[in-house]
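Need tokens for this chain, all 108 residues.
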Amino acid sequence: MNSKKICGILVAFAAVAAFSGTAGAQQSSSGQSVKQDAKSVGHSVGNGARDVGHATKHVAVSVGHGAKEAGIGIGHGAKKAGIAVGHGAREGWDATKHAFKKVFNDGN
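Here are the structure tokens for all 108 residues:
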């Protein structure tokens, strides 16, 4: 369930609770207790929405940190590979240069 659906459900629940609270207050003399019940429901809905928000934030932070760690690992691996290729190329060039000098300097 995404946050839009959850918020929609919470708002609908709060609206129903508020409407039933006002309807009950008009029909009976115990209006104060109905108002308290509606207020309590409103607080519960708010607390639930806050908990959903906190959970969503926690998941997003966890995913973001995981992606960061994966990116760092890939970057470090690419750096090491680049350095190894560079060293290999340098060693190959040095070997070629040494062989060239050996072949052409022996004849002179």
